[in-house]
Every structure is written in structure tokens, then in C-alpha cells.
Specification:
Blueprint: H1 21-46, H2 51-85, H3 94-104
InterPro entries: Metal_Tscrpt_repr (IPR003735), Metal_Tscrpt_repr_sf (IPR038390)
Pfam families: Trns_repr_metal
GO biological process, one term: negative regulation of DNA-templated transcription
């Protein structure tokens, strides 16, 4: 069991793969932007805006969330590859990474 695993958690527990500050900032910026866009969509619906405008903004929210998720999964893939190259046990298995990736699809 790698030393960075929290006791009592199974191997591959997502809390093990910490996001570095740069990635966390990027992902948070994307998520905050999506949050603002979603608030706008809600207001548009409450104000009776046209469906096309609402759906266009909703699609933008969806893309922003997808991009944040894919950015995080890509980082996980890089962490795992780097661990393998160092001869260490990666924090997530390939199956776990695939499951995360497919959850976003």
C-alpha cells in the first residue's frame, strides 16, 4: 500500500490524488464560470427568455463542466503515468481512470 493512502481507505480512493494548486485553480475557475452561467440560465428561465437562448447558455454550462472534469481526469492520468515511470504504485488503476473518464462522457 502506498504511503500516501489514508488509512482505512481502499487503494485508488480519489482523495489520494491531490490536485496541485495550478490545476485546482484552473478547475475552480472553470467551475465558477459554469456556476455563473448556470445562475444566468436560471434567471433566463424565470424571466421567460426564448428557449433557444436558454439552451445555448445551458450548453455552455455543460461544456464548462465537461472541460473541468476532463482536466481533472487528464491530471490523474499524468499522475499515474509518472508514478509508473518512477516504479511506484499509481494512485489509481487504469480501470478506475477509465471509469472516471466514462462517467464524464
Amino acid at each position: 500500500m502506498p504511503p500516501d493512502l489514508a488509512p482505512g481507505y481502499p487503494r485508488g480512493y480519489l482523495g489520494v490524488m491531490q490536485l496541485n494548486e495550478a490545476l485546482a485553480g484552473d478547475a475552480l475557475n472553470r467551475l465558477k464560470r459554469a456556476q455563473g452561467q448556470l445562475a444566468s440560465v436560471i434567471s433566463m428561465i424565470e424571466d421567460g427568455e426564448e428557449c433557444v437562448k436558454v439552451l445555448t447558455q445551458l450548453a455552455a454550462v455543460s461544456r464548462a463542466l465537461d472541460r473541468a472534469g476532463f482536466k481533472i481526469v487528464a491530471t490523474g492520468m499524468r499522475h499515474c503515468q509518472a508514478a509508473r515511470e518512477r516504479g511506484e504504485q499509481p494512485p489509481l488503476t487504469e480501470e478506475e481512470l477509465e471509469k472516471l473518464f466514462l462517467a464524464l462522457a
